[in-house]
Amino acid sequence: MRMREVFELKDKDVMGRIGRLKTAHGVIETPAILPVVRPGADASRLRKFGAQIIITNAYLIYRSPELRNQARDLGVHRLLGWDGALMTDSGSYQLYEYRAIEVENSEIVRFQQEIGSDIGVPLDIPSSIYISHSRARAELDRTLNRLREARELIDDERDGMILAGTIQGSIYPDLREYAAREASRIGFDLYPIGGVVPLMEQYRYGDLVRVILHSKINLEPSAPIHLFGAGHPMVFALAVALGCDLFDSAAYALYASDGRYLSPSGTYFIEKMEYLPCSCPVCSERSPEDLRSDKDLLADHNLYTSFEEIRRIKEAIREKRLWELVQMRVRSHPSLLEGLKSAVSFADLIERFDPISKTSFFYSGPESSRRPEVIRYSNRLDRFELGGTVLITTERVLKQLNIEHDHLFLLKPPFGPYPVELSETYPVGPSEIPKTPDHEAMVVAGSNVRRLIELNPDVRFIIACEQEWKGYIGDIEKGQVEVVWV
């Protein structure tokens, strides 16, 4: 069980949510970006971008005698000139890079509490994505032991610091599920998903999606999730839709130092740009040449773009349009599209989180045929009480027919047959479907026709529809079913 309730849900769509994370230095609205701040730097300037919370590296502070003493004397907030919420990392990234660091788990956990961190992280073991299952399991066991040790040291309510329980396990689904299950038993208020930076660096978004969802399966549904190292705005929408709430970003500065200009649809090299497509305060007043000669300005643009995307995602959640935004974003890169295709293979899991009622359904590509609304509708076809004769047809064909029936179902891809009484009911009624449905939508619709018939073996069905349906229900005619092609 978690030590206390620090996360309050405000709104949700798909698996994404707008929430309120309570910390000792204020309430944070999620989804939220945590800009990475170098130890000793002045973080106050980040307010102008809309930052509510930042993250810095407690290990780098600890290893510097001067910074360590200042942090202990002043507190980490005053050290960085920041009066808002602050999270500290334990040095796990340095451990991943160098395989050994000069601090023990208990030391760095106590140090984070001493310097007044709002959210602290134990020194977990980030496993490589290339190691064997047995080695990943051994490293995971060490991480879990460190989580238990940290939990014994820190009492959230007594000490005022939220302790985060990081989920590791490399790319192995069973280890991610086991890690989440064990971390939940230990009890934390926040669960970072770690060890995913190499997947993002290599554009392995299909693997990233599987890591996120196999971690989510065994975590408390109400627990906030931090996706460690996810700092590019092009991945935010997909990650939020899968239930991630917090993102730490060093990308804004790292990409700027390499001359890279961030956008929600990808990355540009500022050296090759003639126009600035963004209207942020940096780009609206300057030229590409200005950003080429000043990497700080480029970093500012990258931050403005990142925060803008988070606000766009929040509005999409509020309007119940997050899925549509995700489908737009993933088409900016084939690997992101692969990520969404991996996500829809978890459609039954996603359906459990998605709101039952929305304003309308927009079909915006083949992946829409596996949206939660479509899965939910298919699963509820057994709720119709039918008898006598059921006519299944389309709106256009219905105008040409004069067939007696007891129940009338209209055909609409990807849902398939729905009773005419639901014509004004979400999701089948208020839906926007292309006039020429794609193959995936027709396949799902045809499958639901078959399912409705199988669920009602004592009912007579008459199917009357256009020739284009032949490839999807053309072989369905049997004893209880009569088919009329128009």
From TrEMBL:
Pathway: tRNA modification; archaeosine-tRNA biosynthesis. Residues 16-334 form the tRNA-guanine(15) transglycosylase-like domain. One of its GO terms (molecular function) is pentosyltransferase activity. GO terms for biological process: tRNA wobble guanine modification. Its EC number is 2.4.2.48. Zn(2+) binds at residues 278, 280, 283. It holds the Pfam family TGT. Keywords: Coiled coil, Glycosyltransferase, Metal-binding, Transferase, tRNA processing, Zinc. Substrate binds at residues 124, 195. The active site is at 89 (nucleophile). Its cofactor is Zn(2+). Binds 1 zinc ion per subunit. Residues 133-160 form a coiled coil. One of its GO terms (cellular component) is cytoplasm. It catalyses: guanosine(15) in tRNA + 7-cyano-7-carbaguanine = 7-cyano-7-carbaguanosine(15) in tRNA + guanine. It is an enzyme of class 2 (transferase). NCBIfam families: arcsn_tRNA_tgt, tgt_general. Belongs to the archaeosine tRNA-ribosyltransferase family. Exchanges the guanine residue with 7-cyano-7-deazaguanine (preQ0) at position 15 in the dihydrouridine loop (D-loop) of archaeal tRNAs. PANTHER family: QUEUINE TRNA-RIBOSYLTRANSFERASE. This is tRNA-guanine(15) transglycosylase. The gene is tgtA.
